[in-house]
TrEMBL record:
Record: residues binding ATP: G27, S28, G29, K30, S31, T32
Involved pathway(s): Cofactor biosynthesis; coenzyme A biosynthesis; CoA from (R)-pantothenate: step 5/5
GO CC annotation terms, alphabetical: cytoplasm
One of the protein's GO biological processes: coenzyme A biosynthetic process
A molecular function (GO) term: dephospho-CoA kinase activity
SUPFAM superfamilies on file: P-loop containing nucleoside triphosphate hydrolases
Pfam family membership, one: CoaE
Keyword annotations from UniProtKB, A to Z: ATP-binding, Coenzyme A biosynthesis, Cytoplasm, Kinase, Nucleotide-binding, Transferase
The enzyme's E.C. designation: 2.7.1.24
Annotated organism of origin: Actinomyces oris
Top EC class of this enzyme: transferase
Protein name from the UniProt record: Dephospho-CoA kinase
Record's catalysed reaction(s): 3'-dephospho-CoA + ATP = ADP + CoA + H(+)
Length: 216
């Protein structure tokens, strides 16, 4: 676990929850870190879960996406066919940008509404893949970046059913590791065993959340 020289915040806020931004590239294991933080008491809001909710059947978000990209992105039951939408937008920069323009404001509004319900004194974690792309780093008291070696990420994505080319295409449209490190307060390595990751999260929880500003 690597710390930046100057912590973003050295004290926990007293009038609200500690806001933690958690990010990492696809296949880095960010969601695993989110689960480990949840086990230690954090209240986690997942951008991916919110993104699914804002395009649920009957939602304004789904209506906007269908109006833009056509009914070919719908499954037989009227829900969003995420695979069809992904194939349509991830190879087209303009379409992907348009999709983000439609959905990111809806996702952000719903995510922050959920985080605002976390009581003062607790830890509110926002698990968000596009933290850097959305320039959200200044919204948080602490930013955690999860990293893993490229080949390991590709192996994990293959287990999700992606081809190597599909996985590389997804990685290519996200921020780079260097760009994520530039906004990180803490970088967590997830290229080893789960027990190693759990120990690293334990140290993070103790030194940067329970005792902000600690370095050991």
């Amino acid at each position: 676990m690597r710390h930046t020289p100057v912590p973003r915040s050295t004290r926990r806020p007293k009038d609200r929850a500690l806001r933690v931004g958690l990010t990492g590239g696809i296949g880095s294991g960010k969601s695993t870190v989110a689960c480990l933080l949840k086990e230690r008491g954090a209240v986690v809001t997942s951008a991916d879960e919110v993104a699914r909710d804002v395009v649920s059947p009957g939602s304004d978000g789904l209506a906007a996406v269908v109006a833009e990209f056509g009914e070919g992105i719908l499954a037989a039951d009227g829900s969003l066919d995420r695979g069809a939408l992904g194939r349509l937008v991830f190879s087209d920069d303009l379409r992907r940008a348009r999709l983000e323009e439609l959905l990111l404001p809806l996702i952000a509004a719903e995510a922050w509404a959920r985080m605002d319900t976390v009581p003062a004194g607790q830890v509110a974690v926002y698990d968000v893949p596009l933290l850097v792309e959305g320039q959200m780093q200044d919204l948080f008291d602490l930013v955690i970046v999860v990293e893993a070696e490229l080949e390991l990420r590709l192996k994990r994505l293959a287990a999700r059913g992606m081809t190597r080319d599909e996985a590389l295409a997804r990685i290519a449209v996200q921020a780079t590791d260097k760009e994520r490190r530039a906004v990180a307060d803490v970088v967590v390595s997830n290229s080893g065993a789960l027990e190693d990751l759990s120990a690293e999260v334990d140290r993070l929880w103790r030194t940067r959340i329970l005792e902000p500003g600690a370095t050991a």
